[in-house]
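Replying to the earlier thread about multi-chain prediction with a worked example.

Input:
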Amino acid sequence: MGSPHRYIPNTDQNVADMLADIGVSSIDDLFSVIPPEFRLTEPLSLPKALSEPELSAELNRVAAKCAHSMQYTSYLGGGLYEHFVPSVVRHMLTRGEFYTAYTPYQAEVSQGTLQAIFEYQTMICELTEMDVANASLYDAGTAVAEAAVMSCGATRRNKVVVSRAINPRYRQVLRTYAHPRGIEIVTVDYDTQSGATPPESVPKDLLDDAACFIVQSPNYFGIVEDMAALSEATHRSRALFVAVVNPISLGILAPPGSYGADIALGEGQPLGNPISFGGPLLGFFATTSKLMRKMPGRLVGQTHDDQGRRGYVLTLQAREQHIRRESATSNICSNEALCALAATIYLSLMGPSGLRKVAELCTWNAHYLHDKIAKIPEYEFPFDGPFFNEFAVRGRRPPAERNRRLLERGIIGGKMIEADYPELSGCTLWAATETRTRQELDTLIRELEVLA
Amino acid sequence: MKGPQPLIFELSIPGRTAVSLPEPAVPARELAELFPEEYLRKDPPALPEVSEVDVVRHFVNLSQLNHAVDTGFYPLGSCTMKYNPKVNEDAARRPGFAAIHPDQDESTVQGAMELLYTLEEYLCEICGMDNFTLQPAAGAHGEITGLFIINAYHESRNDKRTKVLVPDSAHGTNPASAASAGMKIVQVKSDDRGNVDIEDLKAKAGPDVAALMLTNPNTLGLFDEHIGEIAEIVHGAGALLYYDGANANAIMGKSRPGDIGFDVIHLNLHKTFSTPHGGGGPGSGPVGVKKFLSPFLPAPVVRFNEATGKFFWDSDRPQSIGRVHSFNGNFGVMVKTWAYIRSMGPDGLRAASEYAVLNANYIMRKLQPYYDLPYDRACMHECVLSGSRQKKSADVKTLDIAKRLLDFGFHAPTVYFPLIVDEALMIEPTETESKETLDSFIDAMIRIAKEAKDDPDVVREAPHDTPVGRLDETTAARKPILRYTAEEE
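Result:
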């Protein structure tokens, strides 16, 4: 007699009335177009429905089988970082008016989303000192791939040069996207002493027929690159310089616009988003006015209504799939709008001084940890370049065994990077953000002494 | 009605702050000691300087300018704007899901891996496929992933196929994804009942065709009447059949793409599986394949070791297309999907599709006397009407009808799509709406049809009761203002 589920309101009586209005005798009549051989006759083989309390219990059971960073002290980074997120971010994000809306196709009833994206675009431009930023891409990996494709389109070349010190996962995504389009990828090695990409290692003839040079700073090893020199070396040819940056680091480090980057992008997760096992993330993406119309992704622009009041709309849509179909600059449609909103709220709360302070605290904590580890004779550092919130360590004991022992003591140890860099056997990557306390750092240092 | 709001930057007062951070726990260092001077930032970014209460009021005020599923009916065709269960939001925020790092040792994330593994099983069962990758972060991302897989398959057989067939009713992402995957697009016509034109398909399904991308039910809301024959023609040409799952809300528990002969499918978890759209993401676009394509799935995949009873990452996949996402895809969205499937169960999912189809047919039949119906047969989860009658008789365009609906507190349907319908109005009510809601929407649509005759200006000049009036998109595109710039004092 009632409705079939708490999310489905129509009752049997509603159904009967509606069927009568439609002029059919059963709901199944509406499915008669499906050829009988393709109609399911048995129920799907899925677990039976749970009530809300049963569901919560089941979710608790599964979630309890994960060691999370509120129980354990984690030193994992490698592209995703644990940062303090003010309560305001969650409270604003969980407003149904934001998270249950879709892409703002009807601008008059979507000004909240549109204005927030406009503010986000402005903040990314401010952080990076670039001219224009889009509404977001999926993550840094796909943003790297989109930057490569965009560079090839803008320069009419088909080769991209990439530093081997950028996150190996971003290079893997790039490879997936490049292969079917026939884009050639040339990798430039890092300097084994500093861990940085040496500007002199990039010969002009390598770049002369390249669409772009992609460099990450701080790079995967945490080392800050000489971006000004690398950008200059790139611009000696007609290639574009693509800077992959950590947004928190821009509180203290020179922004891509200051060294002439043509495209600046990065992983926006650190701006108010949880790590969440690797997603949803936030690919931020900015470029110059000159390249604006080649840029992938959505853009919000300011305009006015019929009474002259300020308002915002999706604009420059002639670049996009729903207008241009196969001639679009990218196939992207849904992006990571809510993660971009989190970043906007986070940056509104931080302001210029808060962002700088977070970046300083990260730097100081990471350097404190680094300098204390340096005093333990069994450990050494493969690189001596300047670093931000993360660094590589080599120890004598096999890292897997050390991490297992640390885990027993409530510590999630650094990432083993040997699989991606065989020459760095025994090396692990350690990140320390502003969330690490003195006590946690000292506990780790003591444990590392014991495990040396 | 709340009107335009100042930008957060315009609220900025130098020295104001909304954040409190701890004093340094370790000795503070001069940055100039740690980095070469030229590596350091010279000018701080001009972020707003506001108080915490400023931030809260600003974003609450902004939120109130939005129409959303939580505020009212949102019949946006092809987007499946169904209710987003709150318990699922809480689920994804549990620390055991939200505060775990993808590089953690497998032994410390068995719960998350169990969730991924079982979600893959559920999606396989619902779609009749053999394996799924959960890496793609959105529908279009799923499309390009599926095409990468199709490319890799043909390549592995040294079979050079460069073309993708796309019906003229297809979503814009289909041709854009195919082009992004380096393929050429060939358009296939629709017949006069809204199906793929079989003769045109036969003529175009040549030896250089890699795949046909098909949305079924299609963007007209119609289930293709020749679906079996289409599968035979495509496979007969050595090509693969791709299922765009944007419209999968019509078929759960009723029919499975895998049983029909589809080789590759993407789903939109943010449509069919109730996860919120977030104002334009995050979504999630898992891709399912038949067994013969499994070796090409993005690596790694979660597998279960029977002997140890543990889940593990299988990265040893030499034929894999590689990664399509930096990490595991939009895991938070998957948690919500998993919770949705567990809450619905097999009967609930089937009921969702049945009631979605019922609701769409009800709207279609109730509005048929007032609007043109280009394809008069039972629709699936959405119906496509046309405003061509109003345009011809009263010069009231579909855009005007859409804007007028906003005045009645409804979001507009998708308009001017699919492209093959003149003045298209694509209405998708979903199963989470009651008859009373549908009736009030129907009343509004009937009233607008009458207004178009009696008082067309009220429709042409709509909306009247929204935070802003109709916005000038031409100026926005001609002289783009894409960021705020402080005015010189």
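The longest strand of chain A covers residues 212-217.

Feel free to reuse this layout for your own posts.
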